[in-house]
Amino acid sequence: xxxxxxxxxxxxxxxxxxxxxxxxxxxxxxxxxxxxxxxxxxxxxxxxxxxxxxxxxxxxxxxxxxxxxxxxxxxxxxxxxxxxxxxxxxxxxxxxxxxxxxxxxxxxxxxxxxxxxxxxxxxxxxxxxxxxxxxxxxxxxxxxxxxxxxxxxxxxxxxxxxxxxxxxxxxxxxxxxxxxxxxxxxxxxxxxxxxxxxxxxxxxxxxxxxxxxxxxxxxxxxxxxxxxxxxxxxxxxxxxxxxxxxxxxxxxxxxxxxxxxxx
Length: 263
Known about the structure:
alpha+beta; Hypothetical protein YwqG fold; ten-stranded antiparallel β-sheet; two-stranded antiparallel sheet; 6 helices; YwqG-like_sf; DUF1963; DUF1963 domain-containing protein
């Protein structure tokens, strides 16, 4: 798989349904990401990427707490393995990223570590989730079609120019999901049905606009669903880790936030 073949596919679908004026604009929103699933013999782990288990921290790094409560280690991403596909979506090389949080609260810390120095660190009380090595499948993603009740809303929300002839191509008042009849190119996620994802535009589990700032201000780092780990988020939904785009360029992970997307 390569960027150009994926972008060519996405552009062809967008032009087919939206025409030569609007179609390329939607295709230009594509961002690289990864579908995540448990590693296996046929799906090798992405370096040291994992769900649960011990954290991988620089020596002397304390275990993160919130009000004296130790946070859970949800996942580790080995960004050295992901960086070649992400290109400009990962403007720095942070090495290993440890994602900490609490499954029922919007509390998080993301702690980077040097892969050459990192050691395994178990949480206080040695109470951790089971470790599951992660396979990362590269993909190109578009904003979820639920982001906007109609095509008109979607176009306005992302600042696209509909052009003068859109009404002759399709009905702008139609729902985006209905317009593409299940073939929306942003759903071209090679994740075998799993909903966990690193980077890219995240899939949503409900209608609406749960993460509006992703349009320009924030980078999506990780989406964890309730179906792969030993945790259960609100209403069987998912947890998104986000960071301001400038903070990512600066390597300042203290500005990371989480958002719960309930089912």
